[in-house]
Hints:
By secondary structure, this protein is an alpha+beta fold. The chain has one domain. It has one helix at 33-43; strands spanning 7-16, 22-30, 56-62. Strand 1 and strand 2 form a beta hairpin.
Amino acid sequence: xxxxxxxxxxVLHTHEFEAGDEDLxxxxxxxxxxxxxxxxxxxxxxPGFKDVPExxxxxxxxxxxxxxLAGYVTVYDEEDENEGDGRVD
Length: 89
């Protein structure tokens, strides 16, 4: 039985807005760098993506390996501080 491939290629697109916000989209996960590059070429022709072609990134991605090894903290702007916590001001 052939050994299963452990590394794939994740295609992401990030649109950074002037206010500093980001919109991250996962385009797909591909078996080769060539297939990932083809996906980027196709997506660059689509509405929205073609306006921000520099937002694409191809990231090597291993299966069965933890990708996040630490916890996280959420940092809120002062005006967003109470948003979504159920409190009424």
